[in-house]
Design a protein that fits this description.
The chain has one domain (about 1-265): Spore Coat Polysaccharide Biosynthesis Protein SpsA, Chain A (Alpha-Beta Complex), CATH 3.90.550. Helix 5 packs across helix 6. The chain has helices at about 15-30, 65-85, 105-115, 220, 235-245, 245-255; strands at about 1-10, 35-40, 55, 90-95, 100, 120-125, 135-140, 150-155, 165-170, 180-185, 195-200, 205. It is globular and about 40 Å long. A hairpin with an 8-residue loop joins strand 6 and strand 7. The strands form 3 sheets. The chain has a 7-stranded mixed β-sheet with strand order 3-2-1-4-7-6-10, covered by helices on one side. The chain is of the alpha/beta class and about 270 residues long. The chain is built from 6 helices and 12 strands.
Length: about 270
């Protein structure tokens, strides 16, 4: 039995998506042992991903509402995870622009979750006024898989008490909330109020790795973030800084445990 299976949803196999996949795999290999990686695509051309990951589900490439497209991909990924539930000890749903950044993160997280009797761990982005669990990073024990049913709809209220309409994680939003280990933002250095986030000193999420015309944060939509502007909101600049030297960029932002972050892809462990 392998320790972990990791799965991500990609809107297509364009050059930028291949770059995100390679970056995610670099960090996984540098921080994680004994894992397999799979992908769900919303396109019919898997060739650019050949040799990098196992594509387990395809879409037809239709330009549907982006959030619903993501929900469909997550549910396809969950169905695959359930079919191989007896082959792995742990399951990780992760956005294409997210990845673990801490050596031995899996053992550290499992110990904490076991101590507190939690069955899943998920990002909670209070910095974006959210109270809902965010599927950008969703780590599950096997017993949690039957309870996962991703949907798009009302997921409660945000911190301004406005109704949240977004991707939900089944019963874990409400009825099973007590089984959730929240992964909150822990950046030592912030270069943007919401993007480039480090969670539980363990995962990095860039945000909008599959950009759309609707690329806006909740804080902007609700007219809350009027205090930042200029370079801090320049996604092209932040993305380029990540691409130029990803391990240095992430180590600087995370900051709290420098000896525990890989410093280069050369530190990759075999898997």
């Amino acid at each position: 039995m392998k320790s972990l299976i990791v799965g991500s949803v990609f809107k297509n196999t364009a050059t930028d998506q291949v770059e995100w996949l390679n970056l995610q795999l670099q960090f996984l290999r540098a921080t994680t042992e004994n894992f397999d990686h799979v992908a769900v695509l919303n396109c019919e051309d898997p060739e650019p991903f050949h040799g990098l990951t196992q594509v387990v589900s395809y879409g037809d490439g239709n330009d549907v509402f982006p959030s619903q497209q993501h929900v469909n991909g997550l549910n396809n990924l969950a169905r695959h995870f359930r079919t191989v539930a007896d082959e792995y000890e742990n399951f990780l749903f992760i956005d294409n622009d997210a990845f673990p950044i801490k050596k031995d993160w899996l053992n550290i997280l499992r110990i904490r979750m076991d101590q507190h009797e939690k069955s899943i761990a998920a990002v909670l982005r209070t910095e974006n006024l959210e109270t809902r669990l965010h599927a950008s990073v969703l780590f599950c024990k096997p017993e949690a898989l039957p309870n996962l049913d991703f949907f798009f709809g009302q997921t409660g209220s945000d911190l301004l008490r406005h109704e949240e309409q977004d991707v939900g994680i089944g019963d874990y939003q409400d009825e099973l909330r007590g089984e959730v280990w929240p992964l909150i933002r822990t950046n030592r250095i912030n270069v943007h109020p919401i993007s480039c986030g480090v969670y539980f000193d363990m995962f990095y999420h860039h945000a909008f790795g599959s950009p759309t015309l609707a690329t806006r944060f909740r804080t902007e939509i609700k007219d809350y973030s009027t205090h930042y502007s200029g370079d801090s909101t320049n996604f092209s600049d932040l993305h380029q800084r990540l691409r130029d030297d990803p391990f240095v960029f992430v180590r600087r932002l995370a900051g709290w445990s420098p000896e525990q972050y890989p410093s280069s892809p050369d530190q990759c462990k075999g898997n």
